[in-house]
Each structure stands twice: as C-alpha cells, then as structure tokens.
Design goal:
The structure is a homodimer. By secondary structure, chain A is mainly β. The first copy, chain A, is about 15% helix and about 35% strand. The first copy, chain A, has three helices and eight strands. In chain A, a hairpin with a 5-residue loop joins strand 1 and strand 2. At the A-B interface, strand 1, strand 2, helix 2, strand 5 and strand 7 of A face strand 1, strand 2, helix 2, strand 5 and strand 7 of B.
C-alpha cells in the first residue's frame, strides 16, 4: 500500500500495549449481526490509518506490509467503532463488511470450521457456505 | 490447576497451527448476544481440556500455567461450540458466561474501552458499567 505519511506518535496510540513485534491482535466483528468475521494484527501505523481512513488496515505478518483489507478483493471493512480490552493489548473493531464476505475462501466469516466429536476423536468440519468463488474474487 | 492426565496427541489437535510458543489465540463470544467477551490463549492441553470439560480452559501467559476460567471468580464459561478459522491458527469459542461477567474488572465484556476522537487527538473511554465490584468477586 502506498499512502501519505501519517502521525504514529499520537498519545492515544501509547495506551495500546504493543507486543514484542510492535503488534496487537485485532478481532473484526460485524455491526448488527455481531458475527466475528476475522482476526488479524495491527501495528501503530495500521491502527492510525484505520482511524484516519475509517476502513480496516491491518499488518500482514506473512507479507510484512500494511494491508488495506479489500484492496484486492473489494471486500473493504467500514469501521464503525473501535474497542480496547481491559489489559489494553487486544483491539475489537466493529465493522460493516462490504459484499458480506470477509474470508478469502469466499465465505462470510473466516470461522467456518466447526469442531465435532469428542476430545479423543474429534474433527473440524466446514459448515458455512461459500458465497462467492475465490477465483471470481481475485480476478483484478 | 491440578487435573488428571489428558491425551494431547489426538489427531484433531494437529490441524491447529500452533505458534512458535505452542499457543493459539482464542476469542470467547457469548451465545445469543454474540457479544465478544474476552480474548486469551490456549496450548494443546488447554484446548483438549476445554473439549473434555465443556468449559473454557486457557493458558495464562503471565502465570505460565493452565487457567480454568472462573476457577477463582466462579465466572466459568460453558462451551457450546468451537470454531477454527480459515488459516487454522485462531479459535472462536461460543460460550455461555456464568454470572454474565467475563472481565476481571466486573464488567460483562473485557472490551469496555471505546475509541473517541480523531487520529490526531483520540482517547479511550470506559463506556460499559461495572456489574460487580472486583473486591466482591475475588474474596475466596
């Protein structure tokens, strides 16, 4: 993402307890349904940009760069509220999910695998529908 | 927590991508309201015990031991469903929260601090009520 410089020294950013990698875990929850759609990470710049832009900007740990959610898929997350937990080391974003799809698999939520069974013999089953073929999402 | 030995080698546990510390992030969401109540971590044993017991057992990173949520406060979390995300490295627990209080501050949810303001001048404000005085919670 190329974007203009942003102030990452604002006082409110100091209240967040960034981990040893300068990151904080982030939960994205859909306004209205309250469904948990995804989980990701932010650094100071990602959080500052999220507030500035009003859309979720994460830090991609695999690609090691800022990730404006939806930049490729169009599945942008409009941020309606930002919460911080009691220990000040986890962020909860309340968002509106464009196109209703947060997951790269084309599902509404990333949490589509449900545990079935017992501790001795369990399995994870995909229980939520694919709303859009991933090949159709990432054609740009 | 003293507890009987448990099988931590079950095949379904291998599907989870444990991080370099052998942990996975866990989001606890209330059944019904869908409120996100807290965020914590589990290791293999914590997840196996959670399934076995039907109550949330986390790994306390600060105390470096298993933590049966509610063991001191009584605020146990009854587990109704367990979900795994698309990358298989985050767990979502759907729980019933005993006494309606998940947070050690005596609030319903740990995410009680709301961001107000702008990127330049923001602040975090506690916006949810304390339901029970923490001194009354931890008297045992």
């Amino acid at each position: 993402m190329t974007a203009p410089a942003i102030n990452t020294r604002a006082k409110w950013l100091n209240k967040v307890k960034w981990d040893e990698h300068g990151l904080v875990p982030v939960i994205a929850q859909e306004v209205g349904s309250n469904d948990v759609l995804m989980f990701a990470w932010m650094n100071r710049e990602a959080l500052a940009r999220t507030v500035e832009l009003g859309e979720a900007v994460y830090w991609s740990r695999s690609r090691k760069k800022l990730w404006h959610k939806g930049e490729e898929s169009g599945h942008v997350q409009k941020v309606r509220e930002i919460r911080l937990d009691c220990d000040e080391d986890v962020i909860l974003l309340k968002i509106e999910q464009v196109d209703n799809i947060a997951c790269h698999t084309g599902r509404h939520s990333c949490f589509f695998q449900k545990f079935e069974g017992t501790a001795k013999s369990g399995e994870w089953q995909a229980v939520d529908p694919v709303l859009k073929d991933p090949e159709q999402i990432y054609t740009k």
